[in-house]
Input
Amino acid sequence: MSKPFALITGASSGIGYELTKLFARDGVNVVLVARQSPVLTQVADELRSKYNVEVIVNSKDLSKIEEVRALYKEITQLNLDVEYLVNSAGVGDYGLFLKTDWEKELMMININVVALTYLTKVFAQDMVRKGHGRILNLGSIASFMPGPLMSVYYSTKAYVLRLGMAVAEELRGTGVTITTLCPGPTAGRFQQIANMEQSKVIKNQRLPSSQEVAEFGYRGMMKGKVYMVHGWRNHFYVFLTKVVPLALQARIVKHGQGLATN
Output
């Protein structure tokens, strides 16, 4: 009987990287997926030496659907038993919608939405056939509200949450679960890549570590939670979305995400 694998996208840094260590710690073999092949190789060496698990490196640009399809095909050809799928890869961008770069936003939609949807579909189909499996998709506190100054990013994360909740209900009773992890801003490279280091939600704020958020999500996935919001402050924000009108939510988010003055 083949040993189970966890396939983790965005495995080279941040929450994805921390999740690779949690699976390996528990004796689960891992497939590492990201664009940065040299970094993945370093992560793979670390996991093999520390946890003595099998590690497969698969460098792919998930903004290109042909590479996403190739990823699944290659995993299938290796006949790997993917028991866990983690869609952690994601990008954001900060700025006014009329001024942000379309090519970066297209890449964002392809990674955050298209790649995640395709991988969720094909691996969930395989999991249902064997009667068990767990999927963890990375949403955000942004999943719950409109997001001026990060409008496309917030929209992609709203999609991730709604997709996850809908498919989780469809899969009820199959032995397969989908969990959507919804953290707030988290320490890591995401803010730099998204050009939001000067935003008030980031600058001079104490952010939870990627390790802390990963552990929270890992526990929830193993329990089969449908979605999880990390941190009491983020729970409060989610509560507000239930009582504050959408138009006012947009104004509040715009004010909160404005540029810090010091």
